[in-house]
């Protein structure tokens, strides 16, 4: 109860401080050393583009791994080791993934500190969560669905495609979107990968970039009170993005649950 009250007070204070700065210019201006001219366009676009690429990498790999582990992989000691390691990776601190991405994608693969390296690093961060959520959704599908499809002459892939995945889709979508929501709010991996905050352009896949959490972190550290007010406005924008993603997850889950029941 105390934690909920504290969170509510914090949100109210953030809204009171940030709302006067949250206008059209704030959303469409780039970073500036003058608080009255500073905006979050580069940070918002960097966040959205990075998450888009993260989703493109995460969804096929995560869902494919879950399908393999649940439907194809033999139940032996090797697969048990893989399952335990996936569960352990879900609890690794995000800054560790940032250091791993810096070593592998930025230096070893020579991608540089660009959007693609950031997206691949966030993919490593959320991939265990997507795999675990997708496995739980696939495991929850009644075995009668599989047996019925096999009885009609379907092979294993046809059973998975026609009977298992449609029923598991609500859980897979919900877990994936919630995992991506976590990636949106992560600052530590991007701080290690990019560390860039003064961006005055919309980044492409191979451009330097910044994201909203990193921009907010930078503004909070500035001595001027105006920048801290800008940070509060940035927090409100980040909350809107996160709540929108969570709302999409709920809508998709309800939509596909109704469809699978029909």
Automatic annotation (TrEMBL):
One GO MF term on file is: phosphate transmembrane transporter activity
What is one GO cellular-component annotation here? plasma membrane
Domain ABC transmembrane type-1, which positions? Answer: 44-249
Q: Where in the cell is it found?
A: Cell membrane
One Pfam family here:
BPD_transp_1
- UniProt-listed GO biological process terms: phosphate ion transmembrane transport
Query: Which CDD domains does the protein's record reference?
Result: TM_PBP2 (cd06261)
Report the PROSITE patterns cross-referenced here: ABC_TM1
Family matches, as InterPro entries: MetI-like, MetI-like_sf, Phosphate_PstA
Q: Where are the transmembrane segments?
A: 42-69, 89-108, 114-133, 187-206, 230-252
Q: Which protein family is it in?
A: Belongs to the binding-protein-dependent transport system permease family. CysTW subfamily.
The record ties this protein, via NCBIfam families, to: 3a0107s02c (TIGR00974)
Protein name, UniProt field: Probable ABC transporter permease protein YqgI
């Amino acid at each position: 109860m105390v934690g909920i009250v504290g969170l509510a007070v914090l949100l109210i204070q953030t809204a009171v401080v940030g709302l006067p700065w949250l206008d059209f210019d704030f959303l469409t201006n780039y970073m500036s050393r003058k608080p009255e001219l500073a905006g979050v366009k580069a940070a918002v676009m960097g966040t959205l583009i990075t998450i888009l690429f993260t989703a493109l990498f995460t969804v096929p790999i995560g869902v494919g791994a879950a399908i393999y582990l649940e439907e194809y992989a033999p139940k032996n000691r090797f697969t048990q080791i893989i399952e335990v390691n996936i569960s352990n990776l879900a609890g690794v601190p995000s800054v560790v993934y940032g250091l791993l991405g810096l070593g592998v994608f930025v230096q070893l693969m020579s991608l540089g500190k660009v959007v693609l390296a950031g997206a691949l690093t966030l993919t490593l961060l959320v991939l265990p969560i997507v795999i675990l959520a997708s496995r739980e959704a696939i495991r929850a599908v009644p075995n009668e669905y599989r047996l019925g499809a096999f009885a009609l002459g379907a092979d294993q892939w046809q059973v998975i495609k026609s009977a298992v995945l449609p029923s598991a889709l609500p859980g897979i979508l919900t877990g994936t979107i919630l995992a991506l929501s976590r990636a949106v709010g992560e600052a530590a991996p991007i701080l290690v990968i990019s560390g860039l905050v003064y961006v005055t352009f919309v980044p492409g896949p191979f451009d330097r970039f910044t994201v909203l959490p990193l921009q907010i972190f930078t503004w909070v550290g500035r001595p001027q009170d105006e920048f801290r007010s800008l940070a509060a406005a940035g927090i409100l924008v980040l909350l809107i993005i996160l709540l929108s993603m969570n709302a999409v997850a709920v809508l998709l889950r309800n939509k596909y649950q109704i469809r699978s029941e029909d």
